[in-house]
Design a protein that fits this description.
This protein has 390 residues and is an alpha+beta fold. Helix content is 18%, strand content 30%. It folds into 4 domains: 158 residues, MoaB/Mog-like domain (Molybdenum Cofactor Biosythetic Enzyme, Chain A), CATH 3.40.980; 52 residues, Molybdopterin biosynthesis moea protein, domain 2 (Alpha-Beta Complex); 83 residues, Molybdopterin biosynthesis moea protein, domain 3 (Molybdopterin biosynthesis moeA protein, domain 3); 68 residues, Beta-clip (Beta Barrel). Helix 3 runs parallel beside helix 6. It is elongated.
């Protein structure tokens, strides 16, 4: 067995950032910006009013001052003349400031009769003008890599960027193995169970930017596994589930080796998830995940997600660790790092009493994986503990 950190580094060394493709802006949400882009225009492109009111000269602003209204400016429709002394232009939010004006009095601070306005006694000092380029200027850069959120999409749209260079989505082929598996909605035989791991991992990987292909379940024989690996052709990552241990029916490793897999490591000092395997098969990274449901999902989080981030050009950073005080005492940990399903309650971390790697109901209600290092000594309630938010 090798330590988790060493296994993760070896796995990440197998992958490289994928190529770049241009997509329409509407398809860029959740994608990773792969190259820097620059604004094609300045925003706002002109000085604009931030309020509804009247544009005039600041030097003429005083209580009870009167002005003649000579026109109107609205968003998309500027006043084309030049403002002179004693004149004002009715202006609305977003409209360009007329030439000659440098102040906007909000309408609540005026009284209007016909074409004349009179200022009140409490006109503020704020000019209510948004300067040209106050948001960004033409040529301003948005730096890659960047996971594009809705606010980023809005910014790119304002910069008049219609197509966006993004990292290609990693193609992940998920291959579950085992005679005991049937698909959700089917009727299991007496000795069968419903496949869950592949669906959970597909949801996890898709949420991190991957394009997932779920392959048919491979049965516990070499011919079925070889056929399944053929169907995985073209994937960037092949994630197998089950069959990676050392039992008589665990055929993934020998079959993969027979068809050319170059193994990087096998078995990691962690629980759940000891029988983890990784290597290169053709042009794809291969990640052999354990068959126990929680083990597969935990290993998908600890290993699969960072691998996808590396492929997307987001770097090789490990999953961010957070800290919280323990809510209970814990005995000494054993010779494997333990990723305990836990709950955060008012900022305090409570590991679940049940840590069996088959209990999906426990994982589904957890919001943290509390990380206990190898051979960690006993812990007391109130001690600080590290966890990964899930």
């Amino acid at each position: 067995m090798i330590p988790v950190a060493e296994a993760l580094q070896q796995l990440l060394d197998l992958a490289s950032p994928l190529d770049v493709e241009d997509v329409p802006l509407r398809q860029a949400t959740g994608r990773v910006l792969a190259r820097d882009v620059v604004a094609a225009r300045t925003q706002p492109p002109f000085a604009a009013s931030s309020m509804d009111g009247y544009a005039l000269r600041r030097a003429e602003v005083e209580p009870d001052a009167m002005f003649k209204v000579i026109g109107e400016a609205a968003a998309g429709h500027r006043f084309k003349g030049t403002l002179k002394a004693g004149q004002a232009v009715r202006i609305f939010t977003g409209a360009p400031i007329p030439e000659g004006a440098d102040f906007v009095v909000i309408q609540e601070d005026t009284t209007r009769r016909g074409d004349l306005i009179t200022l009140g006694h409490k006109v503020g000092i704020k000019d209510n003008i948004r300067p040209a380029g106050g948001d960004f200027a033409k040529g301003q850069k948005v730096s890659a890599p960047l996971l594009l959120r809705p606010a980023d999409i809005a910014l790119l749209a304002a910069m008049n960027i219609a197509r966006v260079p993004v990292a290609r989505k990693p193609v992940v082929a998920i291959l579950a193995t085992g005679d005991e598996l049937v698909q959700p909605g089917e009727t299991p035989a007496e000795d069968q169970i419903v496949a869950s791991n592949s669906y959970g991992l597909a949801a996890m990987f898709e949420s991190k930017g991957a394009q997932v292909r779920m392959l048919p379940v491979a049965r516990d024989n070499a011919a079925s596994l070889k056929q399944a690996f053929t169907l995985a052709k073209g994937a960037d990552l092949i994630a197998t589930i089950g069959g990676a241990s050392v039992g008589d029916h665990d055929l993934v490793a020998p079959v993969a080796a027979e068809i050319g897999m170059q193994q990087s490591f096998y078995k990691v000092a962690m629980r759940p998830g000891k029988p983890l395997m990784a290597g290169i098969l053709g042009n794809a990274v291969m990640l052999g995940l354990p068959g126990n449901p929680v083990s597969a999902m935990v290993c998908g989080t600890i290993f699969g997600v960072p691998l996808l981030r590396k492929m997307l050009g987001l770097g090789s950073d490990l999953l961010p660790m957070q800290e919280a005080p323990l809510g209970v005492d814990l005995p000494q940990n054993g010779p494997r790092a333990h990723y305990m399903r836990a709950h955060l309650r008012d900022g305090v971390l409570f590991p679940d009493d049940r840590q069996d790697s088959s209990l999906l109901s426990v994982l589904a209600t957890a919001d943290a994986l509390m990380v206990r290092p190898v051979d960690e000594p006993p812990r007391k309630a109130g001690d600080r503990a590290e966890y990964i938010a899930i």
